[in-house]
Structures are given as C-alpha cells and as structure tokens.
Amino acid sequence: MTQNLVSITFAPADVEAIDGMLTALEAKLGALITLSADERRKAVKMGDKSEAFCRQTELVLRQNPGIVPSNFDLTGFQQDIVALDVLRPRLQRLRTLADRADDTELALGSDIMSAAYDGYALAKVSGKGTALDTLKESMQTRLSRKPRSVAKPEA
Known about the structure:
- This protein is mainly alpha-helical.
- Helix content is 65%, strand content 0%.
- α3 runs antiparallel to α4.
- The two termini are 51 Å apart.
- 0% of the residues are buried.
C-alpha cells in the first residue's frame, strides 16, 4: 500500500463511550429544531450587520420599556439572544469536529481505494487460472471505462 493518509483504530470500549456521549449530547440538545426547506427559504436571515442592528434594538427597548407595547415579547427577544450566544461557541466546536471527521472519512476512503488499486494491479499480473480470477473480473468490471456519450446539438 503506497498511500496512508490516516491510520486510526477504534477500541470497542471507545466506540461504546463515543456512542454514549453522542446519545447524551443529542438528549441535551433535544430542543434544537429542524426546519423544512421551505421554512429555511422563507426565514428572515440575520447576518453580521443585521445582528448588530438586532442587539442595538434590544438595548434601546430594554432601556426604554415605556415604548414597548404589551403584545411585544421583549423577554422572548432577550432569551433568543442569550440562547444564540450560548449555542454559537458549541456549534463552532461541533462544526470543527464534524469537519475533522469528514476529512478523516475522506482520507480513509482514499487509502482504501489506493490499496484496492494496488491490489488490483497485483492481481492483474499474477497469472491466469488462479483463485484470483473472480476478483480480477469483479475489479475489471468496476474499473472499466465506458465511453461517454456526447450530447448531439440540436439542429
């Protein structure tokens, strides 16, 4: 095997511990929601500049309670800001961990494909009539390239 981007093993006890921690994390983050594609598209988005506006608005409303009508949920508005401030650093840690897991998955797949190509090359040169014929045939099917059909332009 000529490529080895990553070498990792998972002890059964570690896998069990990881699964337990993920279950606990999922339980603790049970209040997180899932939006439909339509809900995501229709939602008003808050960017960096918008966030500064929102925080300034909350400050003005908090300092001037007399201008806040009774049907405006200032407490809910403030709780949402606090929840966002609590969630963000944890979300960043989760994203970083997920990015590392994605990179590791890609590297493992790449190492496996590289080893399979090397193994196929060895099987190809190892003579006919051996027990490797079936393997060579299945690998040959996987690696055979069919010519791509070129779309013909309409007249």
